[in-house]
Design goal:
This protein is of the alpha+beta class and about 280 residues long. It folds into 2 domains: about 100 residues, no CATH class; about 170 residues, 3-Layer(aba) Sandwich (Rossmann fold), CATH 3.40.50. Helices cover about 35% and strands about 15% of the residues. It has 11 helices and 8 strands. The strands form 3 sheets. It has a 4-stranded mixed beta sheet, covered by helices on one side. A two-stranded antiparallel sheet has the order 1-2. β7 and β8 form a beta hairpin. The longest helix has 22 residues. It is globular, with a radius of gyration of 21 Å. It starts with 7 loop residues before the first helix and ends with a helix. About 25% of the residues are buried.
């Protein structure tokens, strides 16, 4: 895959040098084989390596809500939402991308982000769940470094402080560019960690620092403080070895699924005093 002539990198370079659809599609399919090895050998979900490949999360019970006429009107949407075709990439749009091998193309995204951050002053937050294999946080960090935001390399990884007094991850921020690693989260981070993502979203809108939300970010002078690398280790405490059906729920407090029909009792949490009233009210 990655060694010898005609390897994945060679094919990607050829695609981007010539820009021919069938060459790019071939490169895309060839490189995808490395990902399929993970799926075949491990039997685990590439979007959440803690779960088996039959992972039912995120649940799809929100789909009927999104298709309510009054909700669509409020959102300005005019087509029904289909989870299979929209979220899972199995629909017309995804197929169209596949026929042109878009996954193999360098589409100028890094340069676009550089322009937004360095020239336009746009506040950008890139976040990754650290249980996501597909868009893993280590690769995301490499992209973040390629943006070359002024001072980013000198910034440290700082704990994210949120209103529930739990550390849900770390951020590395310089000025208006931030990279966040969210602990115990799969690909759909807002599903696994709704509180931290909401608060991070609010901080970006308010142009305050992502770590605490208390410091105004007015230029490149702001930098997060902490170690130069993120070494947090999740451990295997939330690794699942049981299949769950689509009636199971995911427990955002314990970071593991609840069996079908299980009701979560917040009183079972250890060290209850660490949790704010906001978490449960």
């Amino acid at each position: 895959m990655y060694h010898g002539a005609g390897n994945c990198v060679d094919k990607l370079n050829d695609c981007n040098a010539r820009g021919i659809d069938n060459i790019c599609t071939d490169a895309d399919n060839f490189c995808f084989a490395a990902e399929s090895i993970y799926d075949t050998i491990t039997g685990r979900d590439e979007y959440d390596l803690r779960e088996l490949s039959s992972d039912p999360f995120p649940n799809t019970n929100f789909v009927p809500y999104l298709n309510l006429p009054n909700v669509q009107q409020a959102l300005g949407a005019y087509l029904n939402f289909s989870y299979a075709s929209t979220a899972l990439g199995a629909g017309t749009v995804s197929n169209a991308f596949g026929t042109t091998g878009d996954d193999a193309r360098e589409l100028g995204i890094v340069n676009t982000l550089k322009n937004l951050v360095n020239n336009r002053g746009v506040y950008v937050l890139a976040y990754h769940g650290d249980a996501d294999y597909n868009c893993n946080w280590l690769g995301g960090l490499q992209v973040a470094q390629a943006i070359e935001a002024p001072g980013f390399s000198a910034a440290g990884f700082q704990n994210i402080s949120t209103s529930d007094y739990e550390v849900h991850g770390v951020v590395k921020q310089s000025g208006g560019y931030t990279f966040a690693r969210i602990y115990q989260s799969g690909h759909f981070v807002p599903f696994y960690k709704p509180r931290v993502i909401l608060e991070l979203f609010e901080r970006v809108l308010a142009r305050t620092d992502v770590a605490t939300g208390k410091t105004a970010v007015k230029g490149p002078s702001y930098k997060s403080t902490g170690p130069g690398t993120s070494t947090y280790f999740n451990g295997n405490g939330t690794i699942q070895y049981t299949d769950y059906d689509n009636t199971a729920t995911y427990n955002i407090y314990t970071n593991v699924p609840d069996q079908s029909g299980t009701t979560f009792d917040k009183r079972s949490l250890p060290n209850k005093r660490r949790f704010s009233k906001l978490m449960f009210n």
